[in-house]
Each structure stands twice: as structure tokens, then as C-alpha cells.
Amino acid sequence: MPAIDGTRLRRVPGGERVREKESERSDLVTCEEFDQGAENDQEDGGGRCGSLRKRDKALANSLFVYREVVQMPALTSNPSEVAALAVEFEHASATEVLRWAVDRFGRYAAIGTSFQGAGLVTIHHAVAAGLPLPVFTIDTGLLFPETLELKTRLEEYFGIVIEGLVPERTVEQQAEDIAPELWQSNPDLCCTLRKVEPLQKKLNQLDAWIAGLRREQSAGRANIQVLELYEFDRLREKNILKVNPLVHWSRDEVWDYIRRHGIPYNPLMDRGFRSIGCYPCTRVVISGQDERAGRWTGFDKSECGIHTFLGDKI
Q1: pTM summary value
Q2: Strand blocks (E) in the chain
């Protein structure tokens, strides 16, 4: 039933009610329609997505122009519900999972990406479905030039602004305060300072963190679920829900999707790099090794910490 202000209430998965304004709602587009719009933008500056960019809209075909959470059950304090939903979403499409995240958490859900293949696919699904999910990345100050250039290309292609999270210290300040080239003597500490701490500050503002983790990537990720609830801040009793919409995708499926839709990607991928992080700690992967074998060569380390620093999984 419409409300006095012209909005209406509707019930979304999980039972909460959401107030939604319909006056400016546009139809969703398929991935193919979105790609055609991107091609039109390149040719003549037109197309749906191009016209929206000219009006400084962050996302093309945004479904949710205005929404106000009227009643929000505390999913992040209900492990049994998360476990049940994880089973339910095991065979759901990426778009279905992302739409649920927007319906459930609104602006308190965001996509975090380091521009690996799965992250690009996740962003494409969100934008093509008109889901206004913010996107952020961690700029460590040690990224490859190609990675920095890709960020700009993706912002132009998708018509979005990707927030860059930066460490408190510059690389030069870190060298003066702690040690020069810390990544060589203590890569765990370097990753904590340059990746984990900026991410912690960002997650403090969120309830749901959408990531591009896949089970096939490494042995340590073989058992991840679509939804995983973690303790984030015990003193404040704050938990964080990690949403992994592409857990069951293979590397081949990811890259077939990227090439089919013409999504910009890091050119280092064509030079033998399979997982790209900071330039001092990333090398070309030998055939037959898992995707993350090219990270932190010479150290007993396969994760930077952003996916392992959280408290207990609950």
C-alpha cells in the first residue's frame, strides 16, 4: 500500500520491510544490454550508462532510488539463520545473492576488490542488475602501475567511483618508522599495516562485506561458504557477514565471462600472473601451480591477512 509520501512498503527476503520510492525506478538490464550500452558510450558518448554518467550518477539503471529500512532483524547476530541461508544460496546465481545483500543491508553492504578476475565479475553483475553497491579497494602504495591504471579504466567502463583505502603511513614513512622494505624482513607486519588496518576501518562502517573468493583458488579456500559470519569487534558485539557470491565458479568460468562481456582486466594476467598483489611480493606462476603460488615467494605465507584477520567464524 502506498504511503503518504508516495513511497510504498514491501517485504523482502528475511522478513524486514523496506520503503521504496517508485517514481524514478528504471527497468533492469541484462548483462548483454549493459555491454551494448558500454559499446555505445565508447562510440558516441550515448547509451543508457553513458547518459547516466553525464548526470554524475554512480550506477547505471539504479533500481533503488530511495530506500529506508523500517524494520531490520539483526542477521549478524543470528548464526543459525546465516547457516540456513548459506545452504539455501549454495546454488543461487551471483545476481540473486547480490540482490539479497542489497535488500537486506542497503548501504551497509559493499564490494571489496583487488581487481582479480572474480572481483570484476562481481562488479559487472551488480552494475548490470542495477544494484547500487559501493565498491572499494585497498591502495597499499605498492601496487603495480597496471593495477592503478585498471582502476581508472574500470571506473570509466562501469560509470562508478571506486573508493581507495590507504594506510596511515606512506611507504617512505613506514621505512623510516619501522624498517626499509619491510616486506622482505616481515611480510606479515607489512600486510597488516598496509592492507589489514585500512580494511578494518572500512568494515567498521559495514555489516556485509562482498568478496570474490572462490573455492578453487587454493586449499585454504576450499571450504568457504556463500555466507560466512565472523566476529569483528567483541567489545562492541559487532559481527561482519562475508558474502561470497562466486564460491563455486572455476577460473575458466571467470575468464570466459570477462572475455565474453569485454570487461577491462589487468594486462599482467596475459603475462603469466594469476593472482596480483603488491609488486615486491608477486611473481609469475609456473604452470600447474595454484593461483596464489606466485605470492610471497620464499615465505611460508599464502594470504595477506585481509581474509584471515577476522575473529572466530560463528
Answers
A1: 0.75
A2: 7-11, 17-21, 67-71, 109-112, 135-138, 162-165, 208-210, 227-233, 238-243
AA letter at 115: F
Q: What is the pLDDT of residues 203-230, one digit of tens each?
A: 999 999 999 989 887 777 778 999 999 9
| Residue type, position 102, single letter | V
* Domains of the chain (ranges, CATH numbers): 74-314 (3.40.50.620)
Whose cell is 524494520? That residue is 71
Rg of the chain in Å (alpha carbons)? 20
Residue 310 banded pLDDT, cuts 50, 70, 90? confident
**Cβ(60)–Cβ(28) below 8 Å:** no
Catalytic residues: 304
Residue 136 corresponds to which cell in the numbers above? 572499494
Beta strands across the sheet bearing 162-165: 162-165, 135-138, 109-112, 208-210, 238-243, 227-233
d(CA 232, CA 123): 25
